[in-house]
Amino acid sequence: MDFRPLMCLLVLSLQEVFKILFEVNPAHIWKEIQINVTATSDSDEVNSTLFDNSVKISIPVKYEAGLRFTADRHMKEDHIIVKEGEQHPRVFNGTSVIGEEVKISYTINRDVDMATPPLKLRVKYPYLSPRENILLYLTHVTSSQDVRCHAGHLINPLKINHNNVHTLNLKKETLSDFLVGCKDHPCESFDCSIPHVNNSQVNVTFRVWKPTFIKAEFTSLHMIVHATLENQNTDLFMLSTANHARDVKIQVSKEALGGIPLWIIIVSILIGLLILALVIFALWKAGFFKRKSMEDMEKEDMKN
To answer: Residue ranges of the Integrin alpha third immunoglobulin-like domain (predicted)?
Structure first.
């Protein structure tokens, strides 16, 4: 630890208050700052009173990690649309036929030239619906050399390939944002260990399980892939709230059925006729349709 002296001249006073500002060198990370304060006098002082002329002050220090955490989504379209009458294969012999591909790239960059704490990236995503239909299917996880991800058991869990086909067994259900969320329903998750940040990256690839949404009843919903960054050295470092979590939304919409059903047209016509009849009846009761006789008109003319 580097010690540098600082001298302050004090006038004759029983008490003196002063402020010292320190600037931390990011190249040297210390758990605490030690300050030794010694008071001396130009006059002679007996040895018995010298013991209280010095004091040691220790200040615990925490550093905010200079990081930038980003999440980028890559899809062919802005959101996924289930078309009217869309069909799906009954058997999957490869992950490419499951549905649209969604890629998410998580990047952790070091902003300043200083040491960084070891980190843990946790990715959580909706896997099953309430009726256990698959929502998002994890197919690939890749990372930079300094990152270790523990997601092997979640990558293509059904082992779908040409030699191991998967036969669909769907259950019809109604879906919504709430029913595909992770707050009240269990989701799958995996962790990635990042010992030292140096432009670290984790790439995650999903397939939207299209048959679930073809059969389900819904209009539009969002599935959220939630990623959090955790500091593994809380004694020395802290993460800013801006670098704590990233949410990536995947929107799925269903096309409305084309045309208007015949029964809606018939009911609309009947309601229109009923309203017209009520208006005519009200006008008749008010005397709007009564015509004056010729005698009444002649009497009015004679009066005039």
So the answer is: 95-253
